[in-house]
C-alpha cells in the first residue's frame, strides 16, 4: 500500500476535469498522503519526477501521454513506481497496461490498493530514453500536424485525419536496417520502432505480439503511401494480424540509417538524424497496474 503519493498535474491536458477535487475526495479518507505539483513548461515533469525519485512511495502523472512519457523518463532506472492517471486524448500507456482510462476510476485504484507493481521496458535512441516509440515519415507527420483544435474536436481520430492528409506528400525513403546483427534495406514512407504497441484503443496493438515486458523492440515499416496500402494496414491492425504491407522485425538492438537527415519523434520530442542506434532497456521502469488484468 502506498504511504505517500506525489502527483504531477498537467493542466493543459486533453480533458477539463476537477482533478484536485477528485483527488481529495478519493485520497483524503484513505491512508495515502498526497501532494500535487502543477507543471507549466515542457520538460518540467521529467525534472520534477527525477527529483522526487526515492523520496515518494510513487509518482503519479495526470495528463496525456506526453506527461506520462516525461515522468517515465524522470523515473527511468529508479525503484520509484509510476502511477498513471489518464487525462489526455489517446492515453496509450493506460490502455497498453489495462489501467482505467476513467480518471476517477484510476484514482480509486490508487486509493483502494488493489494493484501490483509491474516492471516494464523502456528503450534508448542515440542514448536518449523513450517509453512508447519513435516515429518517422507519415507516422511522425500524423502526430506533429494534429492541431490542438483537431484533437479537441475528434479525439484520437485526429491522428487518422492527419495521416490521410499527409499521404499526398509522402515519398519513400531508402533505409538501411540492422536488427541484432542482421542487415536489411527497405524503402518506406513511414517507420516506427516500438516499445509499446497500443494505438489508442483498448486491446488493439499495431501488430500482434508487441509487449512492453518482453525485452524486445518492434520495427514496422510502411512501404507505400497509396490509399489501398493504408486500408490494408488499417485492416491488419483491426483484425490483429500480420500484413505484407507492414514490414515487421523484432530484436533487442536496432540500427537504422539514411543518406539524408530525417525528422523523427522520440515519444513526444521532435529531432533530426540520419543514424539511429536503438536498444531496449529491459524492466527499467516500475508501473502501478490493476492487480487483475485481462
Automatic annotation (TrEMBL):
One GO cellular component term noted in the UniProt record for this chain: cytosol
Domain DAGKc: residue ranges: 1-129
PROSITE patterns reported in the protein's UniProt record: DAGK (PS50146)
GO BP: methylglyoxal biosynthetic process; phospholipid biosynthetic process
Superkingdom of this protein's organism: Bacteria
GO molecular function: ATP binding; kinase activity; methylglyoxal synthase activity
UniProt-listed NCBIfam families: YegS/Rv2252/BmrU family lipid kinase
Descriptive protein name: DAGKc domain-containing protein
UniProt organism field: Chitinophaga parva
